[in-house]
Design goal:
Elements (H helix, E strand, L loop, with lengths): L28 H4 L6 H10 L7 H10 L16 E2 L13 H7 L13 H9 L19 E7 L8 E6 L4 E7 L22 E8 L1 H7 L2 H23 L3 E5 L4 H8 L6 E10 L1
Antiparallel strand pairs: 1-4, 2-3, 2-5, 3-4, 5-7, 6-7
Helix pairs in contact: 6-7
Length: about 280
Amino acid sequence: MKVNEEYIYGNNYSQLGLATSDENLLLNRKKYSNRFYTEDLLSKLLINLDNDFSNISYQESFLESTNEYSYDFLMRESPKAIKLNHTFSAELEVENLLSLLKQRKSNRSFKNNRFDLNDVSRILYGIGFKEGHRAYASAGGLYSISLYFYAQNIIGIDSGIYKFQPDSQTIVNIKSISLDSLSEIAQIENIENSEYIKMAGFVVVNRPQIEFKYGNRGFIFSLIEAGEMLQCLDLICEVNKYKFCQLGGYKLDKITNLLGLDGIFAFPVGMFIVGN
């Protein structure tokens, strides 16, 4: 098959390491162009990523990352927080993993059942520190992804925006607010009984927390970490019989402002909803 360069995405085909003779691997512009990314943006992403970590800038940043002060930001947690209850952890039944993965699904219909701080604790238990360990990996152990959530109709805590503090297993109220509807921040037309959703979670990337070490590639590592966190939350909800659904149609600017983020160094890269 003769390859027409006009259809090679961004004309950077060789950088992808793909054999030009394999027609199944051709990246057709019409197929992959979309309203979120232009050809220029994607081609620049390929060009700007270092192929390995042997360059001088990486070595210098790696040496700097070994200094104690570089990790100060990992330990900054507000003392004015609500302690989560984890005394129930030993009572959880461990289901067969294959069965759990088979049962996992996105749920878009909710009921108005009781939901309190213990339920929040159960859901967040799996993504916090337990004896110095977390259930999911992070590049360099930097954990550049933070979890925020909007709480509504949860017994024991006020409606508002909370941030999860994994080191101390606490949540802190960063803004007291009551939304008229979650449609203010996300497209929820396909959600049944959305008023019964208890938690609307936001996965937030903190770029300086990882890019000081990994440069441009750090953002990609953060997205991988975000996916692992969301998968943990999804499986935790399945084990505990909560309904969980990731949302892609969230209103980025509104949520960024709601969380008090700058939208440049810190911004949401994922959203989910939880309820009964």
